[in-house]
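User: Batch of two.

Assistant: Item 1 of 2:
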Amino acid sequence: MAMMGGTGVVALAIWYAVYSQLRPFSDWLTGDVFGIDMASHLGAAVSFFIYDTPKVLMLLVLIVFFVGILRSFFTPENTRKMLAGNRQAAGNGLAALLGVATPFCSCSAVPLFVGFVTAGVPLGVTFSFLIAAPMVNEVALVLLYGLFGWKVAALYMGTGLGVAMVAGWVIGKLNMEKYLQDWVRNQLFMGGSPAQRKPTWSERMDAGVEAVKEIVGKVWLYVVLGIAVGAIIHGYVPQDFMAQIMGREAWWSVPLAVVMGIPMYTNAAGVVPIIHALIGKGAALGTALAFMMSVIALSLPEMLILKKVLKPRLIATFVGVVGCGILLVGFLFNAVL
């Protein structure tokens, strides 16, 4: 264990040394090696891409490794037990927090949603988990921290958890269990799987490595493509244009962003670099984050999967309640920042 700890310290030191040199390396490669004028549109785009790509990927590798270790404490079964043992009022907050710590995107969270409901977890509590799991995940937080700083990341986390908790609470108060598909209601209270042994610390470290392979392996291409689009926006899109379309002065920009985001599908890795570039060109932070939230939390593939377990009225209620929460977040960010 001591040997693993020493190796970890050395690895962190190397990581930090490389990370701290990314900006001068980007400027050197763009200006000196490629000979591109840094003040030109092309220079701004190339420098943006060279700097942000390794920066975001390095942050992802570091944070996902530690989150992978954390996730070894949260199996689907013990997560279910924790949620089932709470009333709705306390359960909504716990479910939202567990959604942040567990390894599920909007689509992969749906099978767990079914498992939780059939095991007796209150419907509203389960919805808090379903909302928080994709929207306030480590990928989104790492990217927001790397591109905007800890204040924006913390505000996003707080408001995202707030949306998840309040939306779940509202849905729970509406008593809409009858709008679950019949096959789901027929399986209520089936119970869980047998208890599993606790992993060793060596196995938890392996879980961190596997999380990096799985998550970063899946999203790195989205990161690169998102940063490439962001680089084009950063270098070539006029600032006044984005200020007119998504600026804080256009009151209709927040609801338009939410409506535009719902039918789209991408993940945080693909959309956050684009949001970064849009904000740099004059888009309001609240409008941009409202668009991001709607894309991540209300994606079309998620709705299609939910249709297998929820009746249309409950899906519409879910979209409406979460959409209203995202609208409030967008207007709030635009008003205070």
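Item 2 of 2:
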Amino acid sequence: MSELHEYCMRCGFPFKEATTQEVCSSAEACDKRLSDPTYRVPQGRLSAIEVRVRWSLIERVQATDPSYPLRARISYQDLCAENDPDRRYWVPPRFRGIGKVLGRISTYEHENGRPLLSCLAVHRANQQAGPGFAVLARELGYGIPTGGERDFWASQVEAVVQYWNEPGRSASGPNPTAQALALITNAAEQLEQARRLLDALQH
């Protein structure tokens, strides 16, 4: 019996349902997602790297004392380094693209009745979320008064920490398939870089 796959084995794109198909039908889209994990990923589903970022935030929350919710914060820089150590997706100093991933994660959380997980990602300098967090929250229907952005963000940090630390709240780790895919896609990128180096030596 053929093995079933939930994600593209090359770029981590989530298939609509488990299938014997191993890679995306569109090679062009698959290539694009090797640098932009959000490219054409349907709403309501997360790519392999998005799953990894989401669970790293949840694990961070669950290791935080609920009496001190702000300790769950993590800088964009540290979040990227933890989940993309090879800088395949997000490159300093601006880590362009991580905001899009965090927005998709929080949208996914909102659609499933949970607080906005991306509130934990903050600028290192002021330890607060960027302005995009309030923009997203308003798009999702939260009524944030002008000037109330910081209070709303702080309330979401508290809500996230409380939610994921409730007694009996089970949160198993990321799907092993997603973890394996993250490793495979990193390896594929390294092999491609090695191939380019060898090609350059031959010319």
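The chain is about 45% helix and 5% strand.
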